[in-house]
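Whiteboard transcription, Tuesday session. T.W. wrote the structure tokens on the left side:
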């Protein structure tokens, strides 16, 4: 039986089956990347609901696993040198592909391209669309100065054009379906939540709508989209 007692987080969010991978998350674009990847890879896991409230992400229990106070984070009881705690969604996705040999690209060139697009999402698409959401839907919308909103809208438009051009008529962004798609599409979905589709010129890219629909039609994606349940 795996012993996860070295992880203080497990005192508050208690594993039912410590032999399973433990996911600490909330169904945001960054959170669902990991639940979707776990579903698509067929890895058994247990999901713990850690909300974005300070009581959760900034609690001592959560900080003991992720000092960066952000979901998602995991504990893999079956890590390479014993139980492994890990955070940052991109790092978790890359770790899971290495662990399972799945969804990371088959050839070395494919694997490099998958990593490239994961990095592109982590450093560009996610942060920029997230900032645009803040200045459009959340507290930033109260700010009169239009420049932050314009800046992030322009960058969002640029990033969508890059994605649309690179995707072209292909089904997936880096060869076969991969963690690169799992990293990217939840952020396209966030445009719906933030109400920012028009601002980033979504309708100029019909291939992105088709890409989005193709992704959403997958069983693993549907299974991972609301994990742990938002209203659990
Ligand atoms: N770069 C991080 C970002 C994670 C992130 O921004 N998580 C947000 C939810 S999507 C969060 O936990 N926010 C809580 C907070 O900042 O207090 C990753 O990809 O894992």
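and on the right, the sequence the group agreed on:
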């Amino acid at each position: 039986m795996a012993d996860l007692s070295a992880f203080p987080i497990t005192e508050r969010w208690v594993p039912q089956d410590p032999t399973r991978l433990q996911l600490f998350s909330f169904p945001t674009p960054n959170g669902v990347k990991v639940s979707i990847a776990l579903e698509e890879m067929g890895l058994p896991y247990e999901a713990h609901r850690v909300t974005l409230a300070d009581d959760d992400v900034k609690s001592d229990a959560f900080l003991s696993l992720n000092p960066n106070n952000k979901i998602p984070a995991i504990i893999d009881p079956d890590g390479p040198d014993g139980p492994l705690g890990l955070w940052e969604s991109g790092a978790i996705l890359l770790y899971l592909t290495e662990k399972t040999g799945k969804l990371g690209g088959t050839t070395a060139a494919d694997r490099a391209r998958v990593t490239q697009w994961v990095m592109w999402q982590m450093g560009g698409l996610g942060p920029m669309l997230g900032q645009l959401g803040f200045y459009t839907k959340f507290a930033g919308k109260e700010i009169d100065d239009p420049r932050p909103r314009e800046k992030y809208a322009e960058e969002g438009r640029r990033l969508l054009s890059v994605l649309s051009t690179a995707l072209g008529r292909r089904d997936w962004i880096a060869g076969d379906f991969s963690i690169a798609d799992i990293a990217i599409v939840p952020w396209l979905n966030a445009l719906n939540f933030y109400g920012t589709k028009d601002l980033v010129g979504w309708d100029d890219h019909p291939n992105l709508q088709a890409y989005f629909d193709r992704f959403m039609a997958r069983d693993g994606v549907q299974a991972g989209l609301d994990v742990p349940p938002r209203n659990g």
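Someone added at the bottom: The chain is about 50% helix and 10% strand.
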